[in-house]
Design a protein that fits this description.
This protein is α/β, with parallel strands linked by helices. The chain has ten helices and eight strands. The protein has one domain: Alpha/Beta hydrolase fold, catalytic domain (Rossmann fold), CATH 3.40.50.
Length: about 300
């Protein structure tokens, strides 16, 4: 476990995997979902592409040595503001998706020390929303510098986005926001005692009896985190397209009765970001292929191959 201060008074808990520093060909900065944690993601093992087992030799790589240890990406996962051992939050604005996107981008810029290293941003649920807003900010900053005839800095360029189980947005967000607000009214103790629900994707499998991960949100930040989420939404379709731009994007979603991460989010995103590669899984067996798919996607970026087209 490590810590990275992204601005005065804001420090994020981090966990690193793969080659250190500039030794890796790509840096992947990864955010978790609302009320989840780094340990929770490790426990669920649903998209743990950072695990060495997720780089099987049988997966075709973009370059001959892309799956050897020295070609693995450096993956830095972090606990979002108000979660885990990261700085607490007292204002919902600090936990709204645009602010979380700023945190992700600032963390990535602090960690990236070599302009030749490809930068990939990604996350699950709230983490995927963070990555989209981080990309939107980065694209707008580059456009502003280009308009001002300023020299563009390659270190700020995002080479890829990985968005897993996109959250509710637009038409489906209002109901979700109401449920989050109701949880705030019940208080942290009731929320923690009730605990996280089992993932619907586990139903009918040999994993359905597993205990869900512990709640990852901090008690002292619970209200700010939840109200920030309840007030959040993705921007309009044209702004989503702007956020993605020409950045290769992989969106992995599921259709398993999960109202928090519905299949409709994948379809709405695909319609807005027409160049994205979108995959919708219906079974746990399909989801278990996601870690390998993410690594293959990053390998393609390292190999400078184009990535696009809906599936």
């Amino acid at each position: 476990m490590g810590f990275e201060t992204i601005r005065p008074g804001v420090t994020l808990e981090t966990r690193e995997h793969g080659p250190p520093g500039a030794a890796a060909p790509a840096l992947v900065v990864w955010g978790h979902g609302l009320c989840n944690s780094l340990d929770g993601e490790d426990q669920e093992r649903l998209w743990d592409f950072w695990n060495p087992r997720a780089r099987p030799s049988g997966v075709v790589a973009a370059t001959p040595d892309a799956h050897t240890s020295d070609r693995a990406p450096r993956v830095v996962r972090y606990a979002a503001r108000g979660h885990g051992a990261s700085s607490p939050a007292s204002d919902p604005a600090e936990c709204a998706w645009p602010a979380l996107g700023d945190d992700m981008l600032e963390l990535a810029r602090a960690l990236r020390r070599d302009a030749s290293q490809r930068l990939v941003l990604g996350g699950a649920s709230m983490g995927s929303a963070s990555a989209l807003f981080a990309s939107l900010r980065a694209n707008r900053e580059r456009s502003a510098r280009r308009a001002a005839s300023e020299t563009l800095d390659e270190e700020d360029e995002i080479s890829g986005l990985v968005l897993v189980i996109l959250p509710t947005f637009h038409e489906t967000r209002a109901r979700r926001s109401g449920r989050i607000a109701a949880a705030v009214d019940r208080g942290f103790s009731a929320f923690a005692e009730r605990g996280k629900k089992m993932r619907p994707i586990f139903e009918g499998t040999d994993r359905e009896r597993e205990a869900p991960p512990a709640v990852g949100v901090r008690a002292d930040s619970f209200e700010a985190v939840m109200r920030g989420s309840a007030a959040s939404d993705l921007p309009a379709a044209e702004t989503i397209a702007e956020a993605v731009g020409d950045v290769p994007t992989l969106a992995l979603c599921w259709d398993c009765g999960d109202a928090t991460h519905p299949e409709s989010s994948a379809r709405a995103f695909a319609a807005a970001a027409k160049g994205a590669r979108v995959h919708v899984a219906k079974t746990l067996e399909e989801v278990e292929k996601w870690p390998g798919m993410i690594n293959a996607f990053v390998d393609e970026i390292v190999g400078k191959r184009g990535v696009g087209g809906n599936e």
